[in-house]
Write a structure and sequence with these properties.
32% helix; alpha/beta; Protein-Tyrosine Phosphatase, Chain A
């Protein structure tokens, strides 16, 4: 069986965090790091790069994530100090709101100094969501991201393959 063209172009690095979870680097350029992690439980994971100023793309496949687990996950994402969170998939508007609430609640006075940009793409085109994420971050912009963390909540090999193919288009 021949390896798909998009998979041949991708440089793969692996990062095993102190929590034992494995992330894959799925970009082939040195100016953009794109890491993919299948976030199956609300457990913590260590970033493969220093926290701060990165974009998180959250692909929600699992429709059965309880509200308390969603809240824990969103608080953890905010604690990683990312500056942009894009939510795609099932209940993505609810996840986006939960990220915003977790951000506000992260400050004792409910007025955090930093800002997190959020957006949602309800079960639309994966390509459009990824294009928007990469196009919204150009080297000349103050919100430029050279590091991306893709979190897939749930399991669907076809969606994972589509995500990797769309990222390869930007590499």
């Amino acid at each position: 069986m021949e390896t798909p063209k998009h998979a041949r172009r991708m440089v793969r690095f692996f990062h095993v965090s102190k929590y034992g979870y494995c992330m894959r680097r799925i970009s082939n350029t040195m100016d953009r790091q794109v890491w993919l992690h299948h976030w199956q439980q609300a457990d913590r994971f260590a970033l493969p790069f220093p926290s701060g100023s990165f974009a998180c793309m959250l692909f929600i496949i699992d429709a059965d994530v309880p509200a308390d687990e969603r809240e824990r996950r969103c608080k953890y994402i905010v604690s990683l100090v990312c500056t942009t969170v894009l939510c795609w998939g099932r209940d993505c508007n609810i996840w986006e709101t939960a990220i915003d609430m977790a951000h506000v609640e992260s400050d004792p006075d409910f007025n955090p100094p930093e800002h997190i940009n959020t957006a949602s793409y309800p079960m639309g085109s994966i390509k459009e969501a990824i294009d928007d994420a990469f196009m919204a971050s150009c080297p000349r912009d103050e919100q430029y991201h050279s590091r991306y963390l893709i979190l897939i909540v749930g399991h669907d090999p076809m969606i994972t393959e589509e995500v990797e193919r769309c990222i390869a288009d930007h590499a």
